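[Discussion] Sanity-checking designs against the backbone

I'm trying to build intuition for which residues belong where. Below is a structure token string of 398 positions. I'd appreciate it if someone posts a full sequence so I can compare it with mine line by line.
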């Protein structure tokens, strides 16, 4: 495994750096590194690391969401208001509806199978979006209207919403009825996740005030608690979002002690340097090129059509606001990237033996390959042109 990790870091950083030098997102280089090193091409990664790939990807996601919590000020979200709430579910609903309309006609699958496919495709990737939005906040772009904060928060809740829809659709495909109680899992898991996280954040800040330890030790404690929260989500009989709880811990600490939050955020930023490479290289390694080459143009049409529905959903969320047309276009671009959720659940319908398993996995793979670089590159190329700039001092706008 050590050899595989060395290849992941060295090749991922090298190709990522190369892509950045030629004006493309470094994550595209990391994704391609994973594809090249993975089992479908050179097969240089040991089976052991592929077996724990999902856990390593989740570890990286936890690190970036922890950092996001430290940087997310609830006052900014209150300032945005209604669009911040709508961004959590409206774009995903539009995209699922888009797939429901397109896939049965183009791919000859049932409406229920199209809902499953739509739920897999619809989730955006916090791992792509959150680092980009944090960078914009640090640079002062869009912060006057809290646009990066709105996108960052919406992307995190979006995943919870979509995964519950996916679970319900799979149950329906397996002959189980969708109960109203099942749909209630969406708001309940969001609320319980936020409450758990806020309480833990308050407890931790009191602990940190009474027990003087190094910031590095505080980060280790936070990450350990975050791991436990994700594990609790998997075993809890109560609907609960571990990822939202993780963000809420950071938000609570940021509200009680902004200075501590800033210091811990810097520590997480350093951890993200390595975690980012692991995340995107292993996402690339999970891509099965055989499905891509066998899919044909029809699946590409479905993915692109679904993206157009998502973009319209984002536009609807920003209606009757002070967000300008240029800023709305940026929001539509920034809400495109997909990666981690598709890599995590794209293969589940196939593993469950559903007839649509192969085609769902193919569309999930294509969604990663098309949207991750497209969204990341779109953000990098447009934020200076579409967002207003506001000077920052110590990560606070002035």
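Best answer:
Here's mine. Compare freely.
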């Amino acid at each position: 495994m050590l050899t595989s990790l060395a290849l992941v870091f060295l090749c991922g950083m090298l190709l990522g750096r190369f892509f950045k030098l030629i004006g493309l997102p470094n994550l595209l280089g990391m994704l391609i590194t994973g594809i090249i090193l993975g089992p479908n091409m050179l097969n240089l990664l040991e089976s052991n690391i592929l077996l724990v790939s999902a856990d390593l990807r989740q570890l990286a996601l936890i690190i970036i969401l922890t950092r996001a919590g430290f940087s997310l000020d609830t006052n900014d979200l209150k300032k945005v208001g209604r669009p911040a709430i709508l961004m959590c579910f409206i774009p995903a609903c539009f995209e699922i509806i888009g797939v429901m309309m397109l896939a049965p006609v183009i791919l000859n699958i049932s409406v229920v199978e199209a809902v499953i496919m739509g739920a897999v495709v619809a989730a955006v990737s916090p791992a792509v979006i959150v680092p980009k939005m944090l960078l914009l906040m640090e640079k002062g772009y869009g912060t006057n209207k809290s646009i990066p904060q709105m996108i960052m928060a919406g992307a995190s809740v979006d995943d919870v919403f979509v995964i519950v829809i996916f679970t319900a659709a799979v149950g329906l495909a397996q002959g189980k009825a969708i109960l109203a109680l099942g749909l209630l899992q969406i708001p309940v898991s969001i609320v319980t996740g936020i409450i758990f996280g806020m309480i833990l954040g308050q407890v931790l800040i009191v602990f940190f005030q009474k027990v003087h330890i190094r910031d590095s030790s505080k980060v280790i404690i936070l990450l350990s608690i975050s791991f436990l929260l994700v594990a609790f989500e998997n075993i809890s009989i109560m609907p609960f979002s571990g990822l939202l709880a993780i963000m809420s811990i950071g938000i609570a600490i940021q509200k009680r002690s902004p200075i501590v939050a800033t210091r811990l955020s810097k520590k997480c930023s350093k951890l993200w340097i390595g975690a980012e490479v692991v995340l995107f290289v292993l996402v690339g390694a999970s891509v099965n090129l055989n499905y891509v080459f066998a899919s044909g143009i029809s699946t590409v049409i479905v993915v692109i059509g679904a993206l157009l529905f998502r973009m319209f959903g984002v536009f609807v969320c920003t209606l009757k606001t002070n967000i300008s047309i240029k800023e709305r276009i940026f929001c539509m671009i920034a809400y495109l990237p997909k990666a981690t959720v598709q890599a995590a659940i794209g293969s589940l319908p196939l593993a469950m033996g559903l007839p649509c398993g192969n085609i769902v996995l193919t569309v999930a793979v294509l969604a990663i390959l098309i949207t991750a670089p497209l969204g990341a590159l779109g953000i990098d190329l447009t934020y200076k042109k579409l967002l207003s700039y506001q000077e920052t001092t110590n990560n606070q706008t002035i």
